[in-house]
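thread: overnight batch results

M.L. [08:02]
morning all. the overnight job finished for the chain we discussed friday. pasting input first so we're all looking at the same thing
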Amino acid sequence: MAGTVDLVQRVSTGLEMTGNVLRLNPRLPEGLERLDMRIRYRGHTLDLTITRDELRVRDRERGPAPIELAYRDEVCELVGGSARVFALTPPIPVAPDMPHELDK
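M.L. [08:03]
and the structure it wrote out:
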């Protein structure tokens, strides 16, 4: 069961820690319209709410030092007791290979 929870957390939230930045790049699976979860990170208790349109991160703790939080290339500082809302954009589509002039 723990593996299932880990899979939901990492895949659905796109949760990744790189350097001193907590990165989120959510992608909800088909049929799931909303995901609410609470995580602990560097002394902070974070409430995550993910829908198809937005990602909300609310820090429940007021004492710990601020943390760096990122969605895609947007990095911000999250101060204890505050919240941040990111408008989710669709994934960037990969362009199909263009036929080469010599292939015609």
